[in-house]
Design goal:
112 residues; 5 helices; 0% strand; elongated; mainly alpha; single chain
Length: 112
């Protein structure tokens, strides 16, 4: 986000303006709603590298919460059998999962 906004204040100001423009002032602030609204805001600004941004948003969500969301907050491009295979690998060899995160880090450095 450092590449998109001059300061945290600028981010919150822009997000607040977008929020009001959507008429969300009196709507509750459920975590799932915040996730989808932040995603909508960033897409509306044509934020580059949204795949990385969405991945980081998902990671942040799962690191900060011990429960699964009531509903899926994003479209899942994986088929059920692919997902099952990844989950089996994760359970059997969790050390293999770290490699993709390193790749995200490399991509993120390249973006900066």
């Amino acid at each position: 986000m450092e590449q998109e906004f001059n300061s945290p204040f600028d981010f919150f100001q822009a997000f607040g303006d977008y929020w009001e423009g959507q008429g969300w002032q009196k709507i509750g602030h459920q975590l799932e709603d915040l996730f989808t609204r932040l995603h909508s805001f960033l897409k509306s600004r044509r934020t580059p590298h949204m795949d990385v941004v969405l991945g980081l948003m998902k990671l942040d969500y799962f690191l900060g919460h011990k429960y699964k969301p009531r509903k899926i907050l994003w479209e899942d491009p994986l088929q059920k059998d692919q997902w099952a295979g990844y989950m089996k690998t994760l359970a059997e060899r969790p050390e293999d999962v770290r490699l993709p995160l390193r790749e995200v880090g490399r991509r993120w450095k390249h973006i900066k």
